[in-house]
Write a structure and sequence with these properties.
Strand content: 5-15%
Oligomer: single chain
Strand order of the largest sheet: 2-4-5
Distance between the termini: 115 Å
Number of helices: 10
Radius of gyration: 34 Å
């Protein structure tokens, strides 16, 4: 069978990949050692040329398995082993202390950036210069230490019923249809918690099921400033945001002082 006929035969044979037995693989190796082309061998056994190529690449392992019944993998398997075990242990110890404090303190929520920053700190403290707390290191560290994926924490449930507010929202929408979109502005006030903790954290499998882990109100620090944002419906006019600082004298003391002067 010439080369062109063998190629046509392989194109027309659209069958499922055929698995060769050990005996057939040994016959393939014998034909390869006789300098027979891979294409003709593939046509003879009814397999693809790439499968014959893989047999040719691993022929030494196939011969050893045929004689000794011992298989030697051609490539070394990737293992998730740490280059710096003492660094991993230090980060894990810190992680457990933050998530399970011994005192009455609430457990802190830890993001990926926090853990990577701690790993860089531990590496610097140990004089490890060729270490980088990359995303790949973090992913492998989580697998080695049995740390689950991050979950979102909530301090308290939402109190607003969307179903009850929908008729009122639709009434406002009907009134806004009378105006041009560029003349419709929306202004809202929001709080900027500049000392707030992240609402997502990584937890270890030893802490229990993910659904049983709850956050607290301590997730958000009370230190904040009020921001006022304003923009029109088309987004063509954005008013510069301004913030409201905390008064030096609380409002309650101002009212009581005014009442004493009256």
């Amino acid at each position: 069978m010439d080369k062109h006929c063998a190629q046509a035969h392989l194109r027309n044979s659209k069958s499922v990949r055929k698995c060769l037995s050990l005996q057939d693989k040994m016959k393939v190796i014998e034909l390869l050692e006789k300098k027979q082309s891979k294409l003709s061998i593939a046509s003879l056994f009814g397999v693809s040329k790439s499968q014959i190529h893989r047999i040719s690449t691993n022929k030494e392992n196939i011969k050893d398995f045929s004689v000794k019944n011992v298989f030697k993998p051609s490539k070394q398997r990737m293992t998730n082993e740490s280059r710096f075990p003492e660094l991993d242990d230090a980060v894990l110890k810190w992680f457990n202390e933050m998530r399970n404090p011994s005192s009455r303190c609430k457990p802190l929520s830890l993001s990926r950036a926090h853990i990577q920053a701690r790993a860089s700190h531990e590496a610097k403290a140990r004089g490890i210069s060729n270490f980088k707390a990359s995303d790949g290191w973090f992913r492998n560290w989580r697998e080695r230490c049995s740390i689950g994926h991050s979950i979102r924490l909530f301090g308290e449930a939402a109190d607003v019923s969307v179903a009850e507010m929908e008729p009122l929202i639709q009434t406002i929408r009907d009134k806004l249809l009378r105006y041009r979109a560029c003349n419709v502005f929306n202004m809202d006030e929001t709080g900027l918690f500049y000392r707030a903790l992240p609402t997502r954290t990584y937890v270890s499998n030893e802490e229990g099921q993910r659904k049983s882990i709850r956050g607290t109100k301590a997730l958000r620090a009370k230190d904040r400033i009020a921001l006022v944002l304003c923009v029109n419906a088309t987004g063509s006019c954005k008013v510069d945001p301004f913030w409201l600082a905390v008064p030096k004298i609380p409002t309650a003391f101002v009212i009581s002082r005014l009442q004493s002067l009256m």
